[in-house]
Amino acid sequence: MRRISEHSPRKSNKRRRSSLEDRVFLNRQKCYKSENPVVSSSGEFDFLDYKRDINKIFAYSRDTNTVTNNLDDFWVFVNKYQATLRKAGKPVICIENEDRTTNDLGIPSNFSKFNCINFSTNIKFMDSVCDEKGRKKLTKSIFDALLNVVSIYLDFKNKEKLEKLKKLRQTQRDLPVAKYREEIQAAVKNERVIIVAGDTGCGKSTQVPQYLHDAGFQNIACTQPRRIACVSLSKRVAFETLTQFESKVGYQIRFEKSKSADTKICFITEGLLLRQMSSENLPNYDVIILDEIHERHLMGDFLLGVLKCLIHTRNDIKLVLMSATINIKLFEDYFAAEAAVVIQVPGRLYPIDLHYKPIYIEDKPTRDDRLDPQPYVQIMQLIDSKYPSDERGDLLIFMSGVQEITSICDAAQQYAEKTKKWIVLPLHSGLSLNEQDKVFDYPPEGVRKCIVSTNIAETSVTIDGIRFVVDSGKVKEMSYDSSTKMQRLKEFWISKASADQRKGRAGRTGPGVCYRIYSEQQYTDMEAFSTPEVSRVPLASLLLLMSSLGVNDVRRFPFLDTPPEDAIENALLELKQHAALSSNEKLTSLGKALANLPVEVALAKALVIGSATLPPHKRDSALALTAALGIRSIFTTRAHRDFECENARKPDESDHGDPLTLLSLYCAWLTVKAEGRGGRDWCRRRGIEEQRFYELTKLAAQLRGLLQDNNLMETVEPESMSSAERAMRHGQMKQLKDMRRQYKQKAAEESKRKKRLKVDSWEIVDDKAEDDNVLDIRDIEFRMTNDAQRIRALISGSSASSGRDLIMLKIVLCRALYPQVAIADEFNHCKSVSDQLYHTYSKPFVFLHPTSYFGKNGRILQLTEGDIQTDTPPGYKSKLPLSARHQLLCYLSLLETTKPYIVNSMRMPAAQTLLLLSHSIDTNSGFTRLVCDSWLLLEFPYPETGLNLLLKAIKLRRRWDTLINRRLLDANPIKSVETELEKTKMSRKSSYGELQHDLSCDISSYMNSDVYYTIKRLLPGDLKVLYYGADEAHATIDPNPFEEGFECRAHEKKGGIYVTDNVVYNCVVDADWSYNSYQELYGIPWTCPDCDISLCLSPLERLQHKHFMCSSRTEEKKVDVKTTPRENKPNAKEYKCENCNEVLYMTPVEILKHRKTCKSKK
Amino acid sequence: MRLPQEMDDPNKSVEEKELVYDFNCVSCNLNEKAHYKGTKPPFSRNIILKYPSYVMKDPFSPPGKGEVLMLGADCAICDKPVCISKECSIFYMKLFCINCAKQSLEKFPVEIQSKINSNKK
């Protein structure tokens, strides 16, 4: 406003004041009749001279209205109004005519422009004291004159708003779907299932929910496959229903919701609606709309099946399916029993000129398979020569993957530099959000955008102004091999449906052209539709969710497309291995807990185990770690190419592997945040997409909430703040809210302005400078939800860089991921880092991913000279290195691109991990050869070392299981007398805290135990001669020193007997060395160090002696001895051995065994 | 059509119950819900309308700011609701739908007559 008052002739006005007022009054009488200017041009009257007084009156009136809300705008209006009048030679002040005679219509027969205005105001005039010399006094008459201008302003603003409203209604009416409004409403009222098929742009997503609401439906859920669509649709529909400031239209997504009791239309992600179904209280929806079902996402497909079942039990729910016009028949047939009604809405598509431009083999300059960018550049040349550059229209090129995009971009960029007619922009999901947004900006006049994209631009991202489409016909798609649990990223020909979708992108804003870089024959040969996700992805999470939803037999679930049988079987097996399902495929309490967590099964398990095992102040580490592995990669494509980025990350890398590096980077970022140093720049220097860290924080918070809701984690009261801290936080919040408001205003302004691209914008952009002044909305929101104290707590809770915390966190994650472990190839020591081979249980010969920590630092996994024990025990010979430092890799996933790779791996001490986590451990009688999961053979040549380690592992495993089961039991209390008793018994024993502490102390000392062993991967040939095989004459072991009270049973195939659920004793055949060492060690009498008894006993018997019979056992333990072994075994009796003259208390079988050993010793 | 209907929102207390008018312009079919009909809209105390009109709380502004959107009024001659856009009506102390205004053309001041005539509808 300053600008305007500068123009007002304030200084020279003093003398003119009285005369001006006279003229005003003069004007009152004659203004209307004579149109002469009242104030001569020499001494113009100006309302702005009275601005201060007038504003004062407005402020005093204590009312808000259009004028007071937009005071600045109002004064601009006043100024323009005056200027217009002056230009037309009319007086600025014009007082209404007093003549009130009216005709038979009740209107004055004389014209007054004020009579054309319906608005008037009743703001009261106030006489203000004019204390300042030289300022003009505001009189009532001037104020009244101003009120007339106010009325005109109100009227003007009102018309603007009405126009906006009418324009909105017009746009709605013009949508193709609008013609089907009544038809859709009637169909939904009368039928159960309705399919609305219409192509992008027909308006179904925004309009159909409104139509249904208008038709009287009160609780409408509308699903979307993407979170972002939920938010933007809910905003748009709220605007269209004129309720943007109410909560009638809301959304609900993974991290947030804007929904209240008033919400009538709710946009929700597919996954979330499914989870609502699994909780008993499904909101009382009367219509469920499933949008974009043609995309065939896993969740969407599954939701269709669930709803197909649901509408049979819930007569009050209507189902509306919305799809593009792809494969409508499939959905119609699927809902044939429910008599689905199909309503087809034609889209708005302009004609598209189609050209096939295949590359023939002989045209290829080189023999290899490498992509030749020339055909693509030639099309750019063609467009330049054929279409004048003043005709607008951009080019969209579909390529299969990032590499292909890069090579096309490079070639296109060279061409663009010559012609200066193109701006080349890549588009794929690996780009940062800022880079992605560039494709929506506008090129300068005479320049076209050339967007080189993956299939992300096929349906997910819609770019306006595309006139030319080039389709490579290829797509890179993830497939999944359920037997090896490996994902594969491979290039395929697209489907006809995809090809048509790509073509259609050229005809959205006007007639277009599509070039296909393949032959018409190729098109004919394409599959009709793309493979749905359900046949390409891991199914374990889905099947677990199904089980928790009460699907009894997942094999008989009515899938839209039934996934391959072995994919289901392998997923079920995986769930059983994770103990989420029992052996008869019933949901376990662990499974129930896992199903509630929206991350993949193994990660959910890490959370549940973590919350049971880790002390409360360290649970954030498990949450952060899980969340870090549960989100997309935090690294941008630059992260692994740019040497600077790699160097900048170095200090925060953990030599334990990728998961801990992620955690450590996150903690470092949190520290930057806590110090208020922004973070965006920090991330950019390290090649990290900061957005991912915000997502990580949100996911971790959400997971914490879910664990707490399910009683799997205690709610920790935040430390109370001192009043000073509270006041500071209050001030900070106020400031942050201010900043957020500023940002939103700015963003709103910016969105109105078109963003211009520069011709050379594809070059490395140095946007540092502009970024620094820009408010970072995510930073603001992060600071609003996380105060300094919270961030500090997160840092201390999430960091696990050393000691027991680190060991516990690693073993928790490893237990959750098991059996996903890999062992190094025995010849790795003589190969370069990139050729290092690893073997997993299901997939031999895999490589370390070049971007992973060990992919760059492979040596750390190898044994050094010093690690290898050369001084082997006598009689022991092996080619394999004997060491206490063997390591395993525990990994999150396998991915095959050019080679099969291990992704996200972490190193673990081998024997300790295997003995603690293996599902089955087989041993020989001397406990020198242990076989884990029939895959890895560990040999412990030093006597007793294998047995001791195994014994420790078994005990720790049991204690750990007890702890986890107790946590699960507390989470799902079954109200029965027994469990109550059990609980009171347990709680009497010791508190969680103590148990956790003791266990973590013992586990960490166990993991650090120094034991020499060799490790070998067993091949099918080895397995054939590894076991004794079934033998009915096997003795039972009683008392059982491994697990008291465990009833031993023979293994049907391997031979030997189970001594715990996981350990089979005496089924592994001995090697020469182990046989000899057994004979040497156990063939001679053994003297118990405690009771000095001397006997010839096998290692197992020695154990039994120590545990149950040794006389040195203290008095109180004798009670145990009395109660357990003797009572349990009625057939035990006293026995006096003739050989060794010992009196033993044994069962007949044991007596036989004893005799045998005693004899053999002789 | 013009009878006020009560919003059946059980959450609102009796005093808060709003009257809703179904406003439907005879000329352009604009169909909106008005919150008030009269000359003194209660949601903006300083605004007075010369002719009783249909008013809604401005849907494009946050609530509580006193912003209103006057949609139209019942025509002073035929008593049918009409919106204020210049294609549909003319205002001169009262609101007239364009049809009635054309029929009573000579009763308006000449300035208004030319405005009415300039409307091609």
TrEMBL record, chain A:
Keywords: ATP-binding, Coiled coil, Helicase, Hydrolase, Nucleotide-binding
Domain (Helicase ATP-binding) ranges: 185-344
Domain (Helicase C-terminal) ranges: 381-550
Pfam families, sorted: DEAD (PF00270), Helicase_C (PF00271), OB_NTP_bind (PF07717), zf-C2H2_DHX34 (PF24485)
Any GO MF annotation of the entry: hydrolase activity
Name assigned to this protein: Putative ATP-dependent RNA helicase DHX34
Coiled coil: 733-760
InterPro entries (alphabetical): DEAD-box_helicase_OB_fold, DEAD/DEAH_box_helicase_dom, DHX34_Znf-C2H2, Helicase-assoc_dom, Helicase_ATP-bd, Helicase_C-like, P-loop_NTPase
Residues in the signal sequence: none
Source species, domain of life: Eukaryota
From TrEMBL, chain B:
One Pfam family cited in the UniProt record for this chain: C6_DPF
Cysteine-rich DPF motif domain location: 23-116
Coiled coil: none
Similarity comment: Belongs to the CDPF1 family.
Protein name as annotated: Cysteine-rich DPF motif domain-containing protein 1
